[in-house]
Amino acid sequence: MSFQAYLDAVETKTGLTPRQLVDAAAEQGFGHGSKATPVATWLKETYGLGHGHAMAMVHVITKGDRISSKHVGTDGAHRDSGDRLWLEGKDSRPDDW
C-alpha cells in the first residue's frame, strides 16, 4: 500500500481529508516536532484509526506532506508516484498527481 493509499483509507474511515485532520491536530496542540505516541493515541481514540493508518497521519502532522523518495518510481508494494502527498481529499486529487 502506498503512503498516499494510507491517507486515502484514513479519509474513507474518518470522513475527513488529511488536511482537516492536520488542522484538528493543530487545535489539539499537535504539529511539527510533536512526539509520535501522543498524536497516534489521539488519532486512535478520537477517530478509531489502526496503528498503521495513525502513524501515516502522524508523519503528515509532525513532518508535513513530503516523504522520502525511497519508494518513488519503484514497483514495490509501498511505491508512490512522487515525494509529496495530496492532503486536500482523494476526490479532488488531480489525475496526474
Q: What's the average pLDDT?
A: 90
Number of strands: 0
Uncertain stretches of 5 or more adjacent residues = none
Query: Span from first to last CA?
Result: 17 Å
What about the largest sheet? none
Strand content: under 5%
> Globular, elongated, flat, extended or rod-shaped: what is the shape?
globular
> What is the CA-atom radius of gyration, in angstroms?
13 Å
The total of helices stands at 4
Helix coverage percent of residues? 40-55%
Order of helices and strands: HHHH
Helix/strand class:
mainly alpha
Walk me through what this model shows.
The mean pLDDT is 90. The chain is built from four helices and no strands. The protein has 97 residues and is mostly helical. The chain is globular, with a radius of gyration of 13 Å. 48% of the residues lie in helices and 0% in strands.
